[in-house]
């Protein structure tokens, strides 16, 4: 399985994948809007041996309080149903973490299943003094620091890019 940065030629395949994996076309529209508006910090794809895109992960900036701290939001993450249970999503997340850390981003947040995301080191965002802009279950909003103490000066409400409000 090859994990690499999204290329322009991958965009239609990513769009098809998102429409196939999620129950509505909202995530596909979100990814397109994030790209179009310059809110795509990192987009990774997983390709099978035939070069087909079978997995996708995107990171976009979030705002903590009134400042841009460089914190990134992980969303969406998906793998084609025929390729699940092979560790592809985990490979995407780990590669994403490595890349963001290498480029100096301090931390990441995610809104998702705590049982799944905790295995990557995500902790409840409330442990860092963070709360989500939306009314979501506290345990589902999580954070991960690439740099120790990344949230010490940034505890506040976290707002995703405006494109997420359409979801």
From TrEMBL:
Give a single Pfam family match: Acetyltransf_9
Protein name in the entry? N-acetyltransferase
Q: Name one GO molecular function term.
A: aminoglycoside N-acetyltransferase activity
> What PANTHER family does the database record attribute to this sequence?
N-ACETYLTRANSFERASE EIS
| Transferase among keywords | yes
Could you say which residues form the signal peptide? none
* Entry's Gene Ontology BP terms: aminoglycoside antibiotic catabolic process
Q: Which organism is it from?
A: Grimontia sedimenti
* Residue ranges annotated for the N-acetyltransferase domain, each copy included: 1-143
Q: What keywords would UniProt list here?
A: Transferase
